[in-house]
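Fold tokens
===========
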Amino acid sequence: MKKKLIIFFLGCTIMGYAQKKNTKNAVKIKPKSEFVAELMSKMTLDEKIGQLNLPTSGDITTGQANSSDVAKNIAEGKVGGLFNIKSVQKIKEVQKIAVEKSRLKIPLLFGMDVIHGYETTFPIPLGLSCTWDMKLIERSAQIAAQEASADGINWTFSPMVDISRDPRWGRISEGSGEDPYLGSQIAKAMVNGYQQHDLSKNNSILACVKHFALYGAPEAGRDYNTVDMSHIRMFNDYFPPYKAAVDAGVGSVMASFNEVDGIPATGSKWLMTDVLRKQWGFKGFVVTDYTGIPEMIDHGMGDLQQVSALALNAGVEMDMVGEGFLGTLKKSLDEGKVKIETIDNAVKLILEAKYDLGLFHDPYKYCDPKRAKTEIFTTASRKEAREIAAQSLVLLKNQNQVLPLKKSGTIALIGPLADARNNMSGTWSVATVGEKCISLLQGIQDVGGKSVKVLYAKGSNLDYDETFETNATMFGKTLNRDPRPKEELITEALKVAEQSDVIVAALGESAEMSGESSSRTNLEIPQAQKDLLNALLKTGKPVVLVLFDGRPLVLNDENATVPAILNVWFAGSEAGHAIADVLFGDVNPSGKLTTTFPRSVGQVPIYYAHKNTGRPLSNTEGKFEKFRSNYIDERNEPLFPFGFGLSYTTFDYSNLKISADKMNFSGKLKVTVDVTNTGNFDGKETVQLYIRDLVGSVTRPVRELKGFQKITLKKGEKQTVSFEITVEDLKFYNSDLQFVAEPGQFDVFVGGNSAADKKVSFELTK
């Protein structure tokens, strides 16, 4: 009887306390460590293992949660959380089962892939990174958390911080590019935006950094494939953004699908325990990716019981979908293959996360229907999404100042992406309502106004291959394939073009041509669209290529023939308006590439911070030299370098100075440069600082980004930009994996992209 009373009191405590100070009938509960320890003392082994289980619910229909397949397990305490269930009504109904029908009334976590916004959708992460604006990036995550939390979600599987230098890999679209320094700044901004330094707030949600680790470097660029690299490369080039997220206090980490050092990451104790916990001090919990545990069977790591024990012993706390923990841990415990202490530690970490989120104080904290009605897809959020999207667009070419367009005359808008509102959000936009997105056609009409006549023709399908197009337009993102012959489509487009003053060609990838399991071997625009573009160019009319993509593309032909190219990625809910704002010059483009654009897929992987060889080219013209490190059929350098992006105005860099030519380990150096807006428009410029360590105990990159500032300059204005260099900027992991700076000579480069040629030098002394 006494035991039953204790359990009843515990359940009442969980239900009765509300997190917010102004909530009536608030009941105070014990401090976290004491509360969690007391709760765990009441749990059976089955209930403990249940907390480690993260199934997907599917889309439970309101009013039917109790009859769903997962309801029975929740009531029996065999579920720790659910994901991809949406709406306050549905989530509250399921949470009610956990806190009213399970024995210990432990609330559930509710997760979702809130990757680049919720219903208000921002540019895909690769596009968002091209703003180089940490305040905007953090704000996008904050708005996403506001909306998701208003709809019942308390956990997002974001940010994805995987460094990728291979555009064949589809999920390059979901990350922040190729650079560890910039990637680290973005990782911190995203974590801070989601969690807001205070998970007790009802509009903050638990972040989950992914995919740990090295997911962005699969062999052949093929998703889920093997990753094999040295530890020195891991620590210097790929690990920093994960560590930055941990340092920012991220609450959870997701294991990656790939293997590392011959062991799938989900089963790697070196990754999950030695590096993540012991070296970096991570205090949260680790969750697998979707079916990550059973997938280790195909990797050749054993049967379900073996791989489940392997994951738990490695340091994984929660099993997403695989149900290997649920079905095998009890047996493994009996057989001595896992320890109860390991299970207990995993349970403790998950319960602590729920406590931090305030779910024990108020399990319905995120289930306020008033918030759901007033805080999702608001006019204010859409306005910010439009402004942020406009900052992400990258002007790659603008010959003879074709752009900005005039708000008069006739525009021919042609291409399969021109009127495709359901593709504007890009990949991994699971909460987006595609019908509410703004197409480019609508955007140009709205921004151009009544003085602009807009004529539209599709011009071509996405690709000549219907099967390819089907695979590239999944999840409701069809482009409504036109069955007419290609000649008829082009002829129709040319008739429209003949009536215009300027042609805007909306071409490139569809939303699902990049993203998970969308690797490509051909990085060019599909041939059907290239044929359309060539036909449009033959009209002699000025052509603006509005390029949609989720990865760097090979654009040699387009760069050689098209007067203006605006890379727009997939810019989110307000894509059409944001693109039109830039096309018409209401916003001066200021985006800068965070990935290198190759000349050929044969150059891949390609990135700016490469190492020198012992036989570098001796010429700067890209001419072939026998017995030198180059190609017989292509130049070494990319088409567009990391950090590149044009503006409607021009910027001049001058008077680069450094405060001293020597610095000791406790000293600081000041680097200054004058930046002048020498063009005819007000504009923004991202001033970038790179450092080269000329001599090291291990080989060092030709240059590394170590600072950047995005500044605004009016026409004719000059500003002196200052950077500070300390010994921390010079540190790297040596061959013993010690994080050190070494005395010697350093070059400093400052400019508008990674090919900056203005240089000063200094010496680091002991």
